[in-house]
Amino acid sequence: MLLGNKIKELREEHGVLQKQLAALLEIDTPMFSKIERGNRYAKRTQVIQLAEYFKIDKNELLTLWLADKILDVVENENELKLAAMAIAQSEMMI
After folding, report:
1. In 18-57, where does DSSP find H-type helix?
2. Rg of the chain over CA atoms, in angstroms?
3. Whole-prediction pTM
4. Contact partners, residue 66, CB within 8 Å, separation at least 6
5. What does the pLDDT profile of the chain (94 residues) look like in tens digits?
């Protein structure tokens, strides 16, 4: 829900309604609301559109988007998630 929180923060800072951003992304308002609440993933292209709309670095939002996906995968793996993340991190360094 990292991305959703950031989107909500940006939306409120700029005084933009959910329906306005939903129209930008060409989705309905309930779908946008689910993205903002973290109940649904935005598409990568939608994340980039939002970054362009708010004039912020797209990598900032894409990093939150990807972190949400990773957290979702390891959410219920209490005993293994830290070890798995360490292995994945070491593989990325190679």
Report:
1. 18-25, 29-37, 44-54
2. 15
3. 0.86
4. none
5. 899 999 999 999 999 999 999 999 999 999 999 999 999 999 999 999 999 999 999 999 999 999 999 999 998 888 899 999 899 899 988 6
